[in-house]
Amino acid sequence: MTDIRVHPATPPDIDRTDLGAVFMSHWYVTGEEEGRAVLDEIADAWEQASRPDDLLSFSCYLSTGSEHFTVMTYAQWARPGSHRSFVQGLPVAAARVEAVEYALHRSVLPAPQAGPPAAIVIASFDVDGPERQRYIVSSVTDNIEKSPRDEQTGLIASHFHVSVDGTRVINFAEWTSDEEHVAFLEGATRHRSLRLATDTPGVRPIGFTRYHLYRAIGS
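Above: the chain sequence. Below: its structure as tokens.
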């Protein structure tokens, strides 16, 4: 078994070369206090369990909104096979919430030297199959890469994940601050990306949620 230690403020390396699968789950809570309590309960269960060698990291996130609070968990595995059996063996019901399996499909790194992210923004898309997944990821990443840097100040990286069942695309975007992301929302790059998604048949933007890393267990 791997010795995995708790690193409360260390974010996961999203595009690590040994990554085989990602499992994400999120759900609503009544507020920040409940969110912290739920994530503590889940993280404690993961920390105390005997974990498989192919578990790379496990991270817990709390949304930043003043209402409609959401918590999210993000688990990286070298291979996907151990995740569900491991989770079902945890003693905490919240830790056994069914997660969606994703593969990291493509990353864009506008400012990797900017340091660890202070905010994570999860933008979600409902899509009609693998071809639509690949198409919208290619369209949005091309827009990011071609857009002027001053239109996306504060964006460290965008990591596009595709669900293995072909129904979802997630943009896991790392930002230097909440404020930089808020400013980006009014800019041209964001509006072009949103228009691309809205105008593409078989792709339906769901929206975004901004998170802060709350706890992390990493190798």
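The first strand starts at residue 5 and ends at 6.
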